[in-house]
Design brief:
Shape: elongated
Number of domains: 1
Number of helices: 4
Largest sheet: none
Structural class: mainly alpha
Helix content: 55-70%
Radius of gyration: 16 Å
Oligomer: single chain
Strand content: under 5%
Length: about 80
């Protein structure tokens, strides 16, 4: 099983903390969007304050903007051809 083909939710702290992962995997997991979504939602569900909310929102916003850009580019290509 490799990290590239494994579903994101297994590594991103949904079921168990990411601190239990090897350090190299923790570095990779830190770039995945679900890690930041879990870091925002879990404390809010428990009624606790969110640490680094601006960072997590910025990462999720960046993923959204990049995804939107590629969606527009690919849609335009398909409509033009």
């Amino acid at each position: 099983m490799t990290l590239a083909i494994t579903p994101m939710f297994i590594f991103c702290g949904v079921f168990y903390p990411t601190s239990t992962l090897p350090v190299a995997v923790q570095d990779v997991v830190g770039f995945l969007p679900l890690t930041h979504a879990v870091a925002l939602i879990r404390p809010m569900a428990a009624g606790l304050p969110v640490d680094d909310a601006a960072l997590h929102l910025a990462v999720l916003s960046a993923y959204a903007m990049v995804g939107f850009y590629f969606a527009v580019v690919l849609t335009r290509r398909r409509l033009i051809q």
